[in-house]
Amino acid sequence: MTVPVVDLSTADDAPEEFAVALREAGHTSGFFYLVGHGVGVDRQAEVLSTAREFFALPDADKNEISQLQSAQFRGYSRLGGELTNGQVDWREQIDIGPERAVIDGAQGYWHLQGPNLWPTSIPGFREIFDDWSAALSAVGLRLLRHWASSLGAEPTVFDDAFAHRPATLMKVVRYPGTANRSQGVGAHKDSGVLTLLLVEPDSAGLQVELTPGQWVDVPPMDGAFIVNIGELLEVATGGYLRATRHRVQAPAPGTDRVSIPFFLNPALDAVVPIIDLPPDLARRSRGVETDPDNPIFATYGENAWKSRTRAHPDVAELHHGIPAPQRGSS
After folding, report:
1. pLDDT score recorded for residue 268
2. DSSP 3-state of 91
3. Helix spans in 29-150 (H)
4. pLDDT of residue 328
């Protein structure tokens, strides 16, 4: 069992076939390889090599942009500095969001708006990743319009949620090899709308739970993005499109893995519209999966705030006075 391949370059020449392929990939697995997206392999290689350049820096240079300096959860997280389901993830990373001013007197999820922290040791770092964010936003919004049409809605149904100040998030991640732990990042679903993932060639570790308890490897495919559905797109489609649990296994000793996940999210205060599915599709919908330990909120910012404060309890406690949970709790 594996995840399907969807070719975005066929959307104009064979729109009906493309719509069915895209819709069913989101329905059956919630994960797929996206080819024909128009983002060249040279551009992909530049992003990955720039990430490697950062992770090769001395710790002092990386900690110049430590996330502990950012009330907006931006910047560099050291190894072991993030949790999933209360368990330590073994990866180091940079979190990058839209570059905006802090909101005076912000409450709750509005604390997530603010500036990034950029390394000074690598000229052009900011420009490379700003350009990457713009390119992947365009691909993601194009996919959303095709999904809407394939589900019987107007192609622009999601546009308003993304029209003003979308709260995209990008991570620049390195998983180092280790002999004494298996969790690169623990099993989870993404809290936003959709994710486009660039994975370093010839690396391994991503696994998807396509059926309960059965984990399937999703290795990189040359030139392709790995796309997955987020919780809010599952909500928007009444569960027809599926947010699927996934995880990353830590690499073997002596190896490592670099990846760049890009999370296409709407504005912090946006409520994603609910699509009224045609009867033939509604009959196949599974409904939205519920988990009392992981509630899905209608407003994107509430979902994001829940996710960020759980994943980075040190930042949440330092900047927002939220007590860190006991290790091992969710």
Report:
1. 97
2. coil
3. 41-55, 59-62, 125-150
4. 44
For residue 159, give Cα distances in angstroms to 122, 148, 163: 35, 10, 6
The Cα–Cα gap between 131 and 49 comes to 15
Q: CA end-to-end span of the chain, whole Å?
A: 31
Helix axes 15-28, 125-150, angle to 10 degrees: 100
Q: Is the distance from CB of 173 to CB of 215 less than 8 angstroms? A: no
Sequence-ordered list of residues with C-beta below 8 angstroms from that of 220, at least 6 positions apart, any chain: 199, 200, 201, 202, 203, 226
pLDDT mean by block of 10 residues, the chain; 330 residues: 93 94 97 98 98 98 98 96 92 98 96 98 97 98 96 96 95 94 94 96 94 94 97 95 96 95 97 95 91 88 95 96 66
For tokens 């990058």, the residue is 96
120 in Cβ contact with 75 (< 8 Å):
no
Residue recorded with tokens 């909120």: 297
Beta strand 82-84 with 87-89 is: antiparallel
| Distance between CA atoms of residues 139 and 149, nearest Å | 16
Tell me if 45 sits within 8 A of 231, measured CB to CB. no
Structure token pair of residue 39: 């983002």
Q: What angle do CA 15, 270, 265 make, to 5 degrees?
A: 55
Query: Distance between CA atoms of 31 and 25, rounded to whole angstroms?
Result: 7
The reported pTM is 0.96
Nearest to 173 by CA among 255, 93, 246: 93
Q: Beta-carbon neighbour count of residue 175 at 10 Å? A: 26
Alpha-carbon span 151 to 38, nearest angstrom: 24
How many other C-beta atoms can be found within 10 angstroms of the C-beta atom of residue 135? 18
Cβ proximity of 232 and 296 under 8 Å: yes
Is residue 26 within 8 Å of residue 84, measured between CB atoms? Answer: no
Helix or strand or coil: residue 310? helix
